[in-house]
Amino acid sequence: MVQYLKINPADNVVVAIQAITKGTVLNIDGKSIIALDDVPAGHKIAIKDLAAGEDVVKYGYPIGHAREPKPAGSWMNENNIKTNLAGLLDYKYEPQKAESFNPDTHYEAPKTFKGYRRKNGDVGIRNEVWVIPTVGCVNGIVQQLVTRLQAETQGKGVDAIVGFPHNYGCSQLGDDHENTKKILRDMVLHPNAGAVLVVGLGCENNQPDVFEQFCGDYDRERVRFMVSQKVKGDEVEYGMNILRELYNKAAQCEREDIPISELRVGLKCGGSDGFSGITANPLLGMFSDWLVSQGGTTVLTEVPEMFGAETILMNRCENKELFDQTVSLINNFKEYFLSHGEPVGENPSPGNKAGGISTLEDKALGCTQKCGKSPVCGVMEYGERLQTKGLNLLSAPGNDLVAATALASSGCHIVLFTTGRGTPFGTYVPTMKISTNTRLANNKPLWIDFNAGTIVEDEPMEQVCQRFINYVLKVVNGEPVNNEKKAYREIAIFKTGVTL
Length: 500
What we know:
Layout: E1 4-5, E2 13-16, E3 25-28, E4 31-34, E5 44-46, E6 55-58, E7 61-66, E8 75-76, E9 81-82, E10 112-117, E11 123-124, E12 128-133, H1 139-153, E13 160-163, H2 174-189, E14 193-200, H3 208-214, E15 223-227, H4 235-250, E16 256-259, E17 264-269, H5 280-293, E18 297-300, H6 310-314, H7 320-339, H8 350-355, H9 360-367, E19 376-380, E20 390-394, H10 400-409, E21 414-419, E22 431-435, H11 438-443, E23 450-451, H12 461-476, H13 482-485
Parallel strand pairs: 12-13, 12-14, 14-15, 17-18, 17-21, 18-20, 19-20, 21-22, 22-23
Antiparallel strand pairs: 1-2, 2-5, 3-4, 5-8, 6-7, 7-9, 10-11, 10-16
Helix pairs in contact: 1-4, 2-10, 5-12
């Protein structure tokens, strides 16, 4: 296996593919460079003398600047690279035509998948029974209902029976209250559920009757509401009678052929390392381009992890209106940081740094590769539901569960989650983990669903992508991923204000 990788000809650093010991001689661009430090796998090595303040270039873009002079062969990390990010910026629309992509010359894949066509025409890839509380006060009731129905049915007839406890729905004001309503509404309407029971208390801020109206024109055969304070006697037994009816209806649903163009996929990364922008994220980018070329939809979020790579996305917007919306997406999140006295260019997490990511730009330039090279066709606010096919941008933070919940709530059927460090979690749609390196895949087979680490082990990228497309379609057709097998299913809602 090669020792290092130079990602872009313009780069002045290379990435160590395997750990490099001090004194190792590297032949880079026809020059011999001696490693001046022990450099862990995934980390960066300077391939030229860097002056203090000089940009450190990776992926062909600056990821920050050298804090002090560093000679060629130096290990470049968060201790000697400083972010270039600052406050709000003015942006100019300089549209760039997206690269053409002909999927028929790249990959072989069916034009349909097996999904569930709902009464309103929407499509799901799972047929589950969900119990959703309007407020945290009824979490115990929700859990009892789920446990009893699981015991009665032995889990047969539907893909899963799941409750989604949360701590929201009361003592919230303003945006927090609206965010809770939007995310819970999006869950109620999500087509991966064949049946939904919404359980309210009665005195919460998120009033059940008001929330029911907020859900709009929903299918009353598929979705039912119960207000616990209005039930005389045992509310659990009352809820079970409703759940049994809902379960019986959901159990009658069957999969049918659905065009690939109706598939909606969320793109997310977390616990990254130096291989994220080399293996797993570019793999998702190729998958995204393939799905978009088929008329399908992908969604990229984690706005703070676009900082430093945002102009790449802005210039791929189909028109000036989308460009302006993307500028607002970025600057609104920067203002959110600044309003709380937090720096815009905050470094990645300790796990990211340990994996070889030194600055937020370093993270962003790897992160945004998940959406490939397709044009940006839509921009959504937090809690908004998909309206436009193709590549969309969604406003949400980088936090794994908050962002994954937001992707599901936008209408995504599945979330593809790349990771170099590993994580077991899942949100309320299948949350597939794609490892950036083989070591992680081998160490955590009960977390990781697909290993992209073979890309730096000489397996051609297009071959890996063909395997990945085949696997994603198996999951879409019903094969469970690890978070589903383990019943790791949670939600988190973006909170910005006070709690009363």
